[in-house]
Amino acid sequence: MRKLIAAAFVSLDGVMQAPGGPDEDPSGGFLHGGWSFGHWDAAMEARMGEAFARPFDLLLGRRTYEIFAAHWGHTQDEPGPLFTGITKYVATSADLGEPFAWANSMKLEGDVPAAVARLKEGDGPDLLTQGSSVLVRSLLAAGLVDELSLMTFPVILGKGKRWYGEDAAAGEWELVASETATTGVIMSRYRPKGPVSTGSFAFEQPNAAEVARRAKQAAEG
Description:
This protein has helices spanning about 40-55, 60-70, 80-85, 110-120, 135-140, 210-220, and strands spanning about 5-10, 55-60, 90, 105, 125-130, 145-155, 170-180, 185-195.
């Protein structure tokens, strides 16, 4: 069975839109494209190299695929040749009208989470997402993500496309690796741990003030 790794550059408030440049994805009036540019260091380059050193296929949303194809499909700088040579699965409901120009690209047919679940059950290398906010949100909602690989940048963007949604499957995640770049970027990896565990720091027997507070909260809905 193949593992699905969701990788993303994210801000402190969870935005993942257009980290690479102002023209990458200005949709929705996003004004901060290129917000990751000034934060790179050698440790981050090494982390990316390690991630791409293992066999993988790319799993991308349509918009991210088009960004990658226009850039990485037209350069001999790595990881351009690597990305061109591997299989790229594109999750989109759009009628693309013509075959993909970028070699080794194919559209996922039908319901995307179901199609991804079938891919995971088959043979082949791990599946790696990059960006693709809409796709990743649907995969998290379906409980299909086996690992999160995040680079969290020390910026707050306020608005923009986020990598998680309110429909994500609830659960705890175990931190399996963490490193901090010299620029303050936190590079972390998480794997699903199980259901959310809950408890309470409240008094064993609520006092009168707490009883009144709960009654007021219940009345307010």
